[in-house]
């Protein structure tokens, strides 16, 4: 690790940025330096302008991605290097205003019923029932499911904030059925294919689970984990009983 990278990492940690943001910012500066073939502290405002145009015109990145890259550059030059901040040097592109993708009750039912297996079904049900972000879902532990208080403990969510979200009876039933099958020990959704299950599922795998279900369901609308956040708090789960989920006689497998 170079001294410059180490200094930026320390400045991010001092401000208690999340691990995902730290990784994203460091990657953005690496990409910026790689584009010009120079150390980033040797680059100036003109390089920033050229790089910005490169992201827009050549790589055609999404607006939100460009905004994140600009934020990383702003942090690097202002907080890490201590250069004066000038808004015109690091403008954030205007975000287009779009209506969110909204699924009908039938489409939600088809999406849930099209999960490839019980592992993916539990993931989709958790996203649908709680409105968790995919990074938050990926880091859920078994002990975070509090069946006595009927809440799920979310640790270091967006903004590094802890919070509780409601646990619906239907989701608890689903997670109990899933637990009896998968037997996760630490992470509620361990990384697939790992015998020791010491790593949580990746956020890409969460996205893949939703995309595959949407494809099987024949949905024409763009569907992502974020789409399911619009349904948080709904208590009625559309569709039939999937994967043989049955009520009655379930033991409390999740500690309070």
The assigned structural class equals: mainly alpha
CATH architecture of the largest domain: Orthogonal Bundle
Uncertain stretches: 233-253
Q: Strand arrangement, largest sheet?
A: 1-2-3
> What's the SSE pattern?
HHHHHHHEEEHH
Find the count of extended strands (DSSP E, 2+ residues).
Answer: 3
- Count of the domains: 2
In DSSP terms (H or I, runs of 4 or more residues), the helix count works out at 9
* Rounded mean pLDDT score: 84
- Main sheet, how many strands, which sense, barrel? 3 strands, antiparallel
Describe the structure.
The protein is mainly alpha-helical and 256 residues long. It has two domains: 3-89, Orthogonal Bundle (DNA polymerase, domain 1), CATH 1.10.150; 105-231, Intergrase catalytic core (hpI Integrase, Chain A). It is 46% helix and 4% strand. The protein has a three-stranded antiparallel beta sheet, with no helix packed on it. A hairpin with a 4-residue loop joins β1 and β2. α6 (118-130) packs antiparallel against α8 (169-182). The longest helix has 18 residues, at 19-36.
Overview in brief:
The chain is mostly helical.
Structural key phrases:
3-stranded antiparallel beta sheet, hpI Integrase, Chain A, globular, 256 residues, mainly alpha
Topology:
Layout: H1 3-14, H2 19-36, H3 45-58, H4 63-80, H5 105-113, H6 118-130, H7 134-138, E1 145-146, E2 151-154, E3 163-166, H8 169-182, H9 203-217
Antiparallel strand pairs: 1-2, 2-3
Helix pairs in contact: 2-4, 3-4, 5-9, 6-8
């Amino acid at each position: 690790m170079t001294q410059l990278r180490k200094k930026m990492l320390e400045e991010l940690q001092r401000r208690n940025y999340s691990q995902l943001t730290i990784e994203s910012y460091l990657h953005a500066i690496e990409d910026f330096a790689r584009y010009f073939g120079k150390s980033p502290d040797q680059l100036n405002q003109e390089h920033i302008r050229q790089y910005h145009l490169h992201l827009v015109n050549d790589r055609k990145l999404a607006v939100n991605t460009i905004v994140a890259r600009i934020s990383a550059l702003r942090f690097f030059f202002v907080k890490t290097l201590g250069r004066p901040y000038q808004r015109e040097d690091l403008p954030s592109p205007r975000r287009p205003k779009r209506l969110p993708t909204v699924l009908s009750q039938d489409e939600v039912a088809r999406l849930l019923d099209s999960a490839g297996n019980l592992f993916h079904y539990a993931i989709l049900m958790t996203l649908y029932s709680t409105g968790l972000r995919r990074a938050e879902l990926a880091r859920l532990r078994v002990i975070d499911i509090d069946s006595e208080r009927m809440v799920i403990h979310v640790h270091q969510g967006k903004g590094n904030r802890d919070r509780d979200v409601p646990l619906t009876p239907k989701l608890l039933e689903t997670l109990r059925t899933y637990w009896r099958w998968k037997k996760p020990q630490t992470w509620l959704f361990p990384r697939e294919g790992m015998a020791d299950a010491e790593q949580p599922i990746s956020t890409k795998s969460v996205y893949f689970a939703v995309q595959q279900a949407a494809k099987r369901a024949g949905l024409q609308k763009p569907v992502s984990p974020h789409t399911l956040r619009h349904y948080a708090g709904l208590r009625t789960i559309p569709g039939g009983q999937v994967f043989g989920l049955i009520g009655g006689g379930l033991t409390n497998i999740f500690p309070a």
